[in-house]
Design brief:
Blueprint: E1 2-5, H1 12-21, E2 26-31, E3 36-37, E4 54-56, E5 62-64, H2 66-76, H3 89-109, H4 119-133, H5 149-158, H6 172-182, H7 185-193
Parallel strand pairs: 1-2
Antiparallel strand pairs: 1-4, 2-3, 4-5
This protein binds glutathione.
């Protein structure tokens, strides 16, 4: 498998999952400005949507969309229990959470990266994001006691909050969880490689 990635982006999430599962993979860096891959190709020929993450399987299929990629990877090694079995009610709950992370938190923080947005618009997006954050219910991990793919994804997107001086300390349970997840060997290995 090949993971197409760009530093400081959401491709960190599937990389954490690859490390967590100890699955063999190659990493191909993408320049998100020029859309060129490190090996000299036009990334839009690989993922026509032009954004990371994209996972190329050994049969040549390319899978995009972070929540699809992490679920695909988790299902390759069900014994690792990074996701409950497909079809189970717990899996539906996980999908509910992954969708919340992608559509409310990931897509909620994305406009803050847009420097062309006027300050008033930035403030509206920021306020909406903070409101969504208050809906996060934190236990030991996102889905309860055990680390799952939802932790890998949420850890990744909350890592961007520091760019906008949004302190996680205003949600103490979230801040404590974020520090715990950062200490996982898979996360450390992914952070080292994702540059
Ligand atoms: N819906 C996609 C969004 C992926 C996405 O936002 N990728 C960003 C980095 S986090 C990107 O590569 N943006 C570059 C671009 O849109 O040109 C997903 O959830 O995987």
């Amino acid at each position: 498998m090949k993971l197409y990635y760009a530093p400081h982006t959401c491709s960190l999430s599937p990389l954490i999952v690859l490390k967590e599962l100890d699955l063999p993979h190659a990493l191909i860096k993408v320049d998100n400005q020029t859309k060129r891959t490190a090996d000299g190709r036009d990334f839009r020929d690989i993922n026509p949507k032009g954004y990371v993450a994209a996972l190329e399987l050994d049969n040549g299929e390319v899978l995009a969309e972070g929540v699809a990629i992490v679920q695909y990877l988790a299902d390759l090694k069900p014994e690792a229990k990074l996701a409950p079995p497909p079809g189970s009610w717990q899996r539906v709950r996980l999908q509910e959470t992954l969708n919340f992370i992608t559509s409310e938190i990931h897509a909620g923080v994305a406009p803050l990266f847009n420097q062309a947005l006027p300050e008033a618009a930035q403030a509206i997006f920021r306020e909406r994001l903070l409101r969504r954050m208050s809906a996060l219910q934190h236990h030991k991990h996102v889905m309860g006691d055990a680390f799952t793919i939802a932790d890998a994804y949420l850890y990744t997107v909350l890592g961007w909050f520091a760019f906008f001086e949004i302190s996680l300390e205003q949600w103490p349970a979230v801040a404590a969880w974020h520090k715990r997840v950062a200490e996982r060997p898979s996360v450390q290995a992914a952070l080292m490689a994702h540059n």
